[in-house]
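User: I want to check something. If I give you two sequences, will you return the structure for each one separately, not as a complex?

Assistant: Yes, each is folded on its own. Here is the first sequence with its structure:
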Amino acid sequence: MALPKLDTPRYKLKLPSTGKVVNFRPFLVKEEKKLLIATETGDQESIITAISDIISDCTDLENIHKLPTFDIEYVFLQIRTKSVGESIEVNILCPDDGETEVKTEIPLDEISVKKTRGHKQEIKLSDEIILTMGYPTLKSFVELNFGEDETPGVEQMFNMAANCVQSIADPSQVYDCKDTPKDELLEFFDGMSSSQFKKIQEFFETMPKLEHTVKVTNPKTNVESEVKLEGLSAFFA
């Protein structure tokens, strides 16, 4: 006699980038196991595959690899919330002494994607040149959240920028950069002034991101501080 099948609840969410309604379900034990194995090994390709498979299996989304980073973070967090609990415990480093950690419980439903006022995808490099940027996708998401370096290096920043350029426009035409060799885009960046490239850095710094602010009290000094957590890795426990 066949064993009974367990019912899996269904939920809805809205993509931060477009407001599109997405149907999703919690991940199952077999999917959680795949993710745990991938994160334990630290292999980025395995993590990319695990996260991609979980989002594909647990939602009705298509073209996951084209979703911006903050959509990936938000969707994965919602799946995780419904899968393993409504809150997590995170060790927060107290900023007043830089060494004491405080275990803090964070309600996952309070974490949201924050959008910076004035952020634009179009970057005016000069009176004649306008750069239109897209957002980092799944591969960049894993590199930023699970890479060995906590702070993106210069080379990583240039490569990520090259991957995200959608078009470059001058008074005579718009150059679609979808099929432009990366070497040409990197050469274009090399020809910028420092102030021009700073605008691209500001694009990444101000783009929508998963964010939550918590208050912690250092048990050693009794100093209360606010700590801003950003990116999925801050809540990945």
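And separately, the second sequence with its own structure:
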Amino acid sequence: MIKYNLQCKKCNLIFDSWFASSKEFDKLKKKRLINCRSCGSLQVEKNLMAPKLINRSVNFKDEKKNIRKYQQIRKTINKYQKFIKNNFDYVGENFAYEARSIHYNNKKRDKGIYGTASKKDIKELKEEGIDTHLIPWVENKNN
């Protein structure tokens, strides 16, 4: 796990975020999945930060415990994802449109839906009284 100090270039918010590795940060940045929690901008960059020097008294058992905890969380997220994929219809980028269609037109579906939407879309859906939920989504290396 690695913690980066990030800065939004649009609103100048500075915040910390954890990533599995520096490669994971780069992968998420490339897929445009890192955004500002304040304004939603994708213009988020690593900020200058001082390196953390490892002290010889570091307890590696705690580090292993943290890695196991991260692996357990990832395993749980994967179980949720499998359930969602098996029981909901994927609508991709059309999530906001499909959710409104179901809500306003009483469009009947055999299954619920899942897909992607911007934070702005999610906020607008909630303001319209349309029940939505954000869930973490991780890419499976096996898929």
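Because they were folded independently, the notes below concern the second chain alone. Residues 60-127 form one domain. Helices lie at 22-30, 60-87, 95-105, 119-127.
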